[in-house]
């Protein structure tokens, strides 16, 4: 937690910058300021995130690579413990057995640098069980956008028509043809391979599925400090869980 959300003090960062004869690049002196600058232009606020106090009571709470018991004991960790008392299962994923991990229902120790592999392994299970929200993927992600297999770039209308726009292209399951994304009445495909005006393409989600298939549980288990333990407890009932929130922004200056 930074000086705005945790127990650290702004003066400590300024003192460190002075001792090392360095400059401060963010308003708090301990990280890159690109995120808050970009956030203000896009969202009109310094660091966009959802207020956890406004979430419905969760059933499963995953604390990944964070230690709020020490960095934000009076705010975020208090909310975590309140949720736990109401029945939420708390899972901590971290290479270190932190103070937060000691309070969790389940601690998953991973090897340093293996976070991405673990995330892909979790997606493998989700896709294998058909638990992905395809309507959400179609509406809010780049999943349906066609990707050219020859250069890895998104297919755009101008690739098909010299007078076309820079809009992305999807494969419409209704008309069985390529259409500009956002066209009314189109239901984009998320999987498969297609030839559009001689260009071989696949939806971005299809490429993700192919990548995730290379991270089955037996491979991902090598990322864990205890490979023989189950990744998640059975009582989590994945098929009944729905996203409630993401907490703080994933990338933040210094945090």
UniProtKB/TrEMBL annotation:
Its cofactor is [4Fe-4S] cluster. GO terms for cellular component: cell envelope. Pfam families: Molybdopterin (PF00384). The keyword Oxidoreductase applies. SUPFAM superfamilies: Formate dehydrogenase/DMSO reductase, domains 1-3 (SSF53706). Keywords: 4Fe-4S, Iron, Iron-sulfur, Metal-binding, Oxidoreductase. Gene3D superfamilies: 3.40.50.12440. It is found in: Cell envelope. Residues 50-137 form the Molybdopterin oxidoreductase domain. GO terms for molecular function: 4 iron, 4 sulfur cluster binding; oxidoreductase activity. Belongs to the prokaryotic molybdopterin-containing oxidoreductase family. PANTHER family: DMSO REDUCTASE CHAIN A, TUNGSTEN-CONTAINING FORMYLMETHANOFURAN DEHYDROGENASE 2 SUBUNIT B. This is Molybdopterin oxidoreductase domain-containing protein.
């Amino acid at each position: 937690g930074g000086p705005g959300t945790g127990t650290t003090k702004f003066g400590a960062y300024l003192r460190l910058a002075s001792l090392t004869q360095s400059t401060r690049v963010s308003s708090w002196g301990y990280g890159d300021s690109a995120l808050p600058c970009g956030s203000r232009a896009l969202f009109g606020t310094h660091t966009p995130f959802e207020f956890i106090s406004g979430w419905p009571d969760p059933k499963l709470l995953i604390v990944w690579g964070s230690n709020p018991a020490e960095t934000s004991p009076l705010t975020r960790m208090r909310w975590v413990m309140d949720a736990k008392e109401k029945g939420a299962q708390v899972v901590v994923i971290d290479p270190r057995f932190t103070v937060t991990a000691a309070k969790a229902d389940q601690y998953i120790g991973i090897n340093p640098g293996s976070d991405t592999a673990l995330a892909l392994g979790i997606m493998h299970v989700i896709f294998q069980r058909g638990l992905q929200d395809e309507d959400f993927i179609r509406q809010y992600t780049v999943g349906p956008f066609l990707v050219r297999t020859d250069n890895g770039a998104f297919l755009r209308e101008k690739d098909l028509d010299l007078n076309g726009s820079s809009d992305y292209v999807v494969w419409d399951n209704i008309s069985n043809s390529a259409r500009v994304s956002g066209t009314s009445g189109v239901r984009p495909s998320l999987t498969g391979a297609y030839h559009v005006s001689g260009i071989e393409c696949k939806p971005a989600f299809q490429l993700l599925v192919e990548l995730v298939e290379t991270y089955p549980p037996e491979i991902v288990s090598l990322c864990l400090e205890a490979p023989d333990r189950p990744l998640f407890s059975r009582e989590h009932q994945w098929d009944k869980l729905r996203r409630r929130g993401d907490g703080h922004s994933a990338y933040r200056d210094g945090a």
